[in-house]
Amino acid sequence: MPVTPRRAAPDDPGHPARTAPVLASVDALDRAVAGCRACPRLVAWREEAARVRRAAFADWEYWARPVPGFGPPDAALAIVGLAPAAHGGNRTGRIFTGDPSGDALYAALYETGLASQPTATHRGDGLELYGVRITVPVHCAPPGNRPTTAERDTCRPWLARELRLLRPTLRAVVALGAFAWQALLPVLAGTGWQLPRPRPVFGHGAEVFLGAEAEGRGLWLLGGYHPSRRNMFTGTLTPEMLREVLRRGAGAAGLR
User: Is the pLDDT reported for residue 5 higher than 50?
Assistant: First the structure.
């Protein structure tokens, strides 16, 4: 008689590892992600941010849960960031929505023909992505925008399952920032793509092709600086630099 894998409770650190592999669709994955409570520090922080709101958002009912990925389940291009912002995605319930990083990213996506509108303010605002799905290695807002290594690793099965579900259509991934790049490498290797040796190093404009270990196509991995407020303010990343890496990602994915 087959043994049914034991599922962990949402507040068990093993919840993502036990739950993610059995999910059969991106929609099911998104629902499971939103109910996760596996990292006590992150749960406490995201809920505290919802209680102690910024004055500008005093009338908002914060999402205050893990923020799932956003975009179609048959995307050819994935964009991977870091984690939701405490008063951005943690407030709105949609990744990169309601904070300066999202303002920069969605404007660039619109200008490159990958989004239906240049702004993202809340779930249900009509925004659509064309052939693109945005996700993160850590689905809860971390204090100081700095998740721990243990939190990243606990959350990793969600990202691994998401990329596995996307694999039939996925042709390219853009990693926004070194954290996303480093989090992605073991996930991509475990999902069936071959990493070159030595392992590729992150940089803005980095581009590497990963062959498929079995059936299926290879994958282009591209690096770009994260559109953080600091990077945009200092000119480390300009709007044109962001648009260019997205155009290259779209081209590698066959969207242009």
Answer: no
Would you say 83 and 147 are in contact if contact means Cβ atoms under 8 Å apart?
A: yes
Within 13 A of 214's CA, how many CA atoms are on the CB side?
A: 6
Lookup: tokens for 150: 């243990």
Q: Show the tokens assigned to 35.
A: 């109910």
State the fold for domain 15-252: Uracil-DNA Glycosylase, subunit E (3.40.470)
CA dist 203 to 149, 175, 192, Å?
21, 10, 23
What does the pLDDT average to over 75-93?
98
pLDDT at 3 over 60: no
Residue with tokens 């102690």: 52
Which of these, 222, 85, 236, 229, lies nearest to 146 by C-alpha position? Answer: 85
Task: Give the predicted TM-score (pTM) of the model.
Answer: 0.94
SS3 state of residue 120: coil
